[in-house]
């Protein structure tokens, strides 16, 4: 499990010099975010000042974290890189594939049966290539990272959007797609557009029922779900110092809900306390030596308007508890005002479930505050009106909470303790109390509350609040309950009030765990066999992609001309298809089935030019592949927006699509196409989109001269024999053209390794 102290010392050894140099280059005091970014440049010492929101910059992250759903394809790809070991410390966490149903023990047993082949694969591949492996039940990726690996001033990437949680311990931690993780694990640079910076100044101190969660619920209200896009949110001010480290983690965690690249806090005493409590004395000692480099310059925080692109100020003393929802995490309502709003909108007032935990809110402090409310229910003879579910964030938290009687308190009020895993937060919840699409309300301390997120039911109205507020609301069973002003009737018919929650930041007896669920990799994994059953329907070892020859780019057929929005979900749907994330051929059966065909307005219904008949997109494409005919996908604006999922590029590539030609790309998808050795091109003249007809054949006439900054000429041969010639733009640099010529970026890495 050991955190890599040598790596941390190396980061800190460079930090002072690089930050001082950056200050010189930028010509002004620096925010913490800038200090971390400039000290992690791929090229070492900073030489130029980057334009925020404009320049693309190569970085060298210190760590990588993978979760089981996304790790499968990432590691299958990494195996193609020809490396003996990952280039930076990396861990794999099994947390997404465990369904919550009866409780921790039976649920984990079932998950180990249902998904054993995925877990076996991840364990063996981690062992072989030097990745730390956290077994199913060991905990949720971000909680485990916070407790074991996060360190002030570090930079990490993770294949999960809530990787940002590690900002609570002063990191710049960013959620990415599997392809980016593969690059870093394989020893390549990681590219990011230099983010804009939003400063949040916190003053005052939390009090009463208000919790760290309410800070981010408030920020979400102010910035909305899109307000943080392309920006790092940096928290500072006297209020920040008054928050616990795990409370800071909660705030950073939900930065994902406002679209922020990440969020972070400067190193302070709360972080030092957390590092020492989690047995990382050495990290705290090292951090203390360069303390001033692990927070923004004083001048920045004194005059934030001059240094951030946007500044928000929140007075913690005046902040009131909020419940955000339903269906979006930015719809904030102060507790106590929700009744009126719910009645006006016909949201069910009766609360069916209160769910506490997830990567967002399962710290010791969270559990003690929520348990203090549960204890009051026992003492004041209140019988909870809603069901309770708790999913601890890690085995360390669970074991410690059990030792200290917290879980027993929850159990006394009828709570089910689920596995230390994502469970209901990611729809892994076999909920037996609601049949069909029944309209109902739940409250939870998770981060996301989009339609269907928790239980697949589009009519479940989910509200997000702090763990202690969730506990209070669930005890009352009503959404309009305000524990600060309302009374409840107990079993003796008496009116009682809940007192304010009491929490303990860190366990007074220290954290404790028997088996934390960690497996260290072998020092030399060369003899380890990676376990993939040849007949598996969930996993498939990858074959390197063959380069697309210039000769194959003559006589190319149209697979689909997509009309309107085409996100990565349209290209590679989620939902039930998640099951096949590790099996390229099986998941390819969903390729582009959500995209609308320009010629008939239908989805998954395209003309197979070889037969003249209509078929589903994957079926038509497989027919072209069988006939050795390459195809092209034509698209509209912002093609491939949405997630950074590499499947959206790998699937068409696997099925034999050679090129994607669009009016404009979402940048990450464009890069993913390049990495998979495909052509990602744009119309030089947008109107040429209108020239594309259903029976067209395409000739890339000068592809033999593919070069940076040189347009490509495309000849369209229509069914009646007439022709149009159009110009295409591309953004390939020389290295990316090599990816195309070699068949993929991984093929290039492999070739370099072999030298
Ligand atoms: Fe898991 Fe939900 Fe966090 S899915 S990683 S607990 S956001």
UniProtKB/TrEMBL annotation:
GO terms for cellular component: cytosol. It catalyses: citrate = D-threo-isocitrate. Signal peptide: none annotated. One of its GO terms (biological process) is tricarboxylic acid cycle. Residues 558-686 form the Aconitase A/isopropylmalate dehydratase small subunit swivel domain. It holds the Pfam family Aconitase_C. Pathway: Carbohydrate metabolism; tricarboxylic acid cycle; isocitrate from oxaloacetate: step 2/2. Residues 35-477 form the Aconitase/3-isopropylmalate dehydratase large subunit alpha/beta/alpha domain. One of its GO terms (molecular function) is aconitate hydratase activity. InterPro entries: Acnase/IPM_dHydase_lsu_aba_1/3 (IPR015931), Acoase/IPM_deHydtase_lsu_aba (IPR001030), Aconitase/3IPM_dehydase_swvl (IPR015928), Aconitase/IPM_isomerase (IPR050926), Aconitase_4Fe-4S_BS (IPR018136), Aconitase_4Fe-4S_dom (IPR036008), Aconitase_dom2 (IPR015932), Aconitase_mito-like (IPR006248). It is an enzyme of class 4 (lyase). Its cofactor is [4Fe-4S] cluster. Keywords: Iron, Iron-sulfur, Lyase, Metal-binding, Transit peptide, Tricarboxylic acid cycle. Its EC number is 4.2.1.3. The keyword Cell membrane does not apply. It comes from the Bacteria. Belongs to the aconitase/IPM isomerase family. This is Aconitate hydratase A. It comes from Arenibacter certesii. The gene is acnA.
